[in-house]
From TrEMBL:
Domain of life of the source: Bacteria
Keyword Transmembrane annotated: yes
Pfam families in alphabetical order: DUF2306
Species name: Kutzneria buriramensis
Keyword Repeat: no
Name of this chain's protein: Putative membrane protein DUF2306
InterPro entries found in the cross-reference section: DUF2306_membrane
Transmembrane segments: 21-42, 62-85, 97-120, 132-153, 165-188, 194-215
Keywords: Membrane, Transmembrane, Transmembrane helix
């Protein structure tokens, strides 16, 4: 009997551990393509190796792009673990410490991204529409991070998680864009100015829709818990 219980406990722990790693692993994999591309670009800027024409603009003003790549890398990789319930419950102190790193890195990524959008020369397939989208979503990401920080200072944990989830959904948008655009590029060739803008918009909206689905799901699950707590107290 004791062996049976022990085995069941081991199976339950293994299942819980797998669930704990599932979401962070998926988010990290989603961000792999743009983060690898960013790492290659930093290496090229650092070593002075051959840079493709579209990236030559970074040589004259490398600080914003390096800030953006480093910031979004930390934000995407470390931030992926912030949304795992298992990590938060097992290591709450780690979650809080990581939050003080993730939020500033995310804000640095958003602000440097806005700077590059305004002041760097555009790539060939980037027009006014995509520029406008980048300004809107970059601003939305920065605002979401600030609101998330304000919420946690007010002890509004639900609001903090919601705003941070929205900021992360925008920040990881480049990963979703790479995943959705790559098959199209392989099938029909390079995207033009319009299709590039629309597909980028679609990736951001998809991420935000998934984030809002999770946020709404948490809210609906929390309401019955609050009602039960009130009923018990009464």
């Amino acid at each position: 009997m004791i062996r049976t219980r022990s085995r069941r406990d081991d199976l339950a722990m293994t299942s819980s551990t797998r669930r704990m790693w599932l979401l962070p692993t998926g988010l990290i994999l989603l961000s792999t393509i743009p983060l690898v591309a960013g790492g290659i670009l930093i290496d090229q800027l650092n070593t002075g190796s051959r840079i493709i024409a579209d990236n030559a603009k970074y040589l004259a003003d490398p600080v914003p792009v390096v800030t953006h790549i480093v910031g979004v890398t930390v934000f995407c990789l470390l931030g992926a673990f912030q949304f795992s319930v298992g990590f938060r419950s097992r290591w709450p102190r780690w979650h809080r410490i990581a939050g003080w790193i993730v939020a500033p890195c995310g804000l640095a990524a958003a602000l440097s991204g806005l700077y590059m959008t305004v002041f760097y020369p555009r790539q060939v397939n980037v027009g006014d529409l995509l520029t406008a989208f980048r300004l809107v979503f970059g601003t939305a990401m920065a605002v979401s991070l600030v609101l998330g920080f304000v919420a946690v200072l007010r002890r509004d944990i639900a609001g903090h998680r919601a705003w941070m989830m929205r900021a992360y959904a925008i920040g990881i948008g480049a990963g979703t864009q790479a995943v959705t655009q790559l098959p199209v590029v392989l099938a029909v060739g390079p995207l033009n100015v319009l299709t590039n803008a629309l597909m980028s918009l679609g990736a951001w909206l998809l991420n935000l829709a998934v984030a809002e689905w999770f946020i709404r799901g948490r809210s609906l699950r929390a309401k019955p818990s609050r009602r039960r707590a009130v009923a018990t107290a009464a």
